[in-house]
């Protein structure tokens, strides 16, 4: 499905959007629920990635296809490796077969897991023969993806001797590791993360019966921060259900978007975003996003929409996500008239004073490409190709935009 976004404005007011649960929290809790069935979950994400996680956890098939879902692939690699007697091949989309998994597979093999590559060494698909894992100490590289570390942490308490992970080198996407740690603590699992070491103790007594509520997704909220930033002073949007002390690192949006003149107020499980001032044209937004890689596209496009410069760093993980997001951003922003310079870990955007009209944005099987560019319809008419990609994390994205005043034609 390709869509045309007519030039739009936010309908005044009040506007309220309820966003689905965090896919990161959901995918962790679904694995933990498989290990500890006593826990009940509320507000689980309705994203494709969480649907596929639930499908895979319940599947009795010998071949499980997790499509584009990175966390699902990584978390299940660890989970199935520790399910004694389980024999399964995990595969995914063409892109998933290009997303590296060697660091995790090597760590699991060091712990005694039986995993073989079905096609190319270091990449899915992989065949797993589940084992009773008794070894507990392993070292792994920490600067490629935090998902490998979370995957191991999630199974740690179910292993006979627990886990001691030594993290080698700089640690990337740290808030996601802390999210995993915090969820383990909520289940009363003894786990620690100190400097380069993570320990998870085996859980000997049953996990108490309890209901855990997933907070809504902050990465999905980022597109509304961008919409408010690109709207006139006074524009207000309320999003739910959020809390002031989030487990999600992308909640740093509340601080970052102050620089775009957007304030955030918390009340009663919701946040209200308000545009309070315009940004000066000579502003250069300088940010290190090593802790919040998923909002890089949103921020780059907000800056382009405002005509201001940005210098974004800490982006080395973007090259191995749903697409090479640095390349994709450069190509699509330049089609719109931007001037973008990228390295393998930075993106610099020059200030600009016009946006090319009626450009068709390619989305590269990447939900965040579609959602990050959509707010530009507040400036010009534009098109988004393969717009259905949004369902990877936020299936109602286009209908929610229509609700707040965007004019969308599907064809
Ligand atoms: O653990 C998680 O839920 C995630 C970790 C991050 O990946 P990296 O650690 O590979 O940067 C993030 O980009 C991804 O969307 C979700
Ligand atoms: C990188 C992402 O997801 P994953 O790695 O789980 O595919 C994302 O949602 O932006």
Explain what you see.
With 411 residues, this protein is α/β, with parallel strands linked by helices. The protein has 2 domains: 3-20 and 215-410, UDP-n-acetylglucosamine1-carboxyvinyl-transferase, Chain; 23-213, Enolpyruvate transferase domain (UDP-n-acetylglucosamine1-carboxyvinyl-transferase, Chain, Alpha-beta prism). The chain is built from 12 helices and 22 strands. The chain has helices spanning 23-35, 48-58, 70-81, 102-110, 146-156, 174-186, 218-229, 253-256, 296-306, 325-335, 367-373, 397-403; strands at residues 3-6, 16-18, 39-42, 63-65, 87-91, 114-117, 126-129, 137-141, 163-168, 191-194, 197-200, 210-213, 236-240, 262-267, 270-275, 284-288, 309-313, 340-342, 347-349, 360-361, 382-384, 407-410. Strands 20-21-1-22 form a 4-stranded mixed beta sheet. Strands 2-13-15-14 form a 4-stranded mixed beta sheet, with helices on one face. A 4-stranded mixed beta sheet has the order 4-5-7-6, with helices on one face. A hairpin with a 2-residue loop joins strand 10 (191-194) and strand 11 (197-200). The protein starts with a strand and ends with a strand. The relative contact order is 0.15.
Could you outline the blueprint of secondary structure elements for this entry?
Layout: E1 3-6, E2 16-18, H1 23-35, E3 39-42, H2 48-58, E4 63-65, H3 70-81, E5 87-91, H4 102-110, E6 114-117, E7 126-129, E8 137-141, H5 146-156, E9 163-168, H6 174-186, E10 191-194, E11 197-200, E12 210-213, H7 218-229, E13 236-240, H8 253-256, E14 262-267, E15 270-275, E16 284-288, H9 296-306, E17 309-313, H10 325-335, E18 340-342, E19 347-349, E20 360-361, H11 367-373, E21 382-384, H12 397-403, E22 407-410
Parallel strand pairs: 2-13, 3-12, 4-5, 8-9, 16-17, 20-21
Antiparallel strand pairs: 1-21, 1-22, 5-7, 6-7, 9-11, 10-11, 13-15, 14-15, 17-19, 18-19
